[in-house]
Amino acid sequence: MPIAEVTIVPLGTGETSLSKYVAGCHKVLADEEGIKYRLTPMGTIIEGELDRIFSVVKKLHEVPFDKGASRVLLNLRVDDRRDREASMEQKLKSVKDKL
Q1: What is the 3-state secondary structure (H, E, C) of the chain?
Q2: What pLDDT is stored for residue 85 in this prediction?
Q3: pLDDT at residue number 86
Q4: Is CB count within 10 Å lower at the N or C end of the chain?
Q5: Sign of the torsion formed by the C-alpha atoms of 91, 27, 74 and 62
Q6: What's the pLDDT at 84?
Q7: Whether residue 7 has pLDDT greater than 90
Q8: Which of the listed ranges 5-9, 16-20, 92-96 does the model predict with the highest average pLDDT?
Q9: By the 8 A CB rule, do 52 and 59 touch?
């Protein structure tokens, strides 16, 4: 299953804090079905079907605009492994098993 990392940075907000924008994005994620997600200190990891990931990321992109940002910078990385099943948990377990 594809796994994506998304970071959304609102610009032109007049402040340096981003937590209200992150919280707004996570409210959107909480309402989405068919995906798993995990907040990290530097972004959010999303796991789900590729079309669902792209659809959700588009919604997340709009959150800062809805909250008054005048510009949004979005970084998206997708790991779409098709030779075997992958998940957030499996990727972490694979590394931990080698430690």
Answers
A1: CCEEEEEEEEECCCCCCCHHHHHHHHHHHHCCCCEEEEEECCEEEEEECHHHHHHHHHHHHHHHHHCCCCEEEEEEEEECCCCCCCCHHHHHHHHHHHC
A2: 85
A3: 85
A4: C
A5: positive
A6: 87
A7: yes
A8: 5-9
A9: no
Tell me if 49 sits within 8 A of 2, measured CB to CB.
yes
Q: What confidence tens digit (pLDDT) does each residue in 53-99 have?
A: 999 999 999 999 999 999 999 999 999 999 988 888 988 898 999 99
Class (C level, CATH) for 3-98: alpha beta
AA identity, residue 29: L
Using alpha carbons, select from 54, 53, 19, 56 the residue that is nearest to residue 39: 19
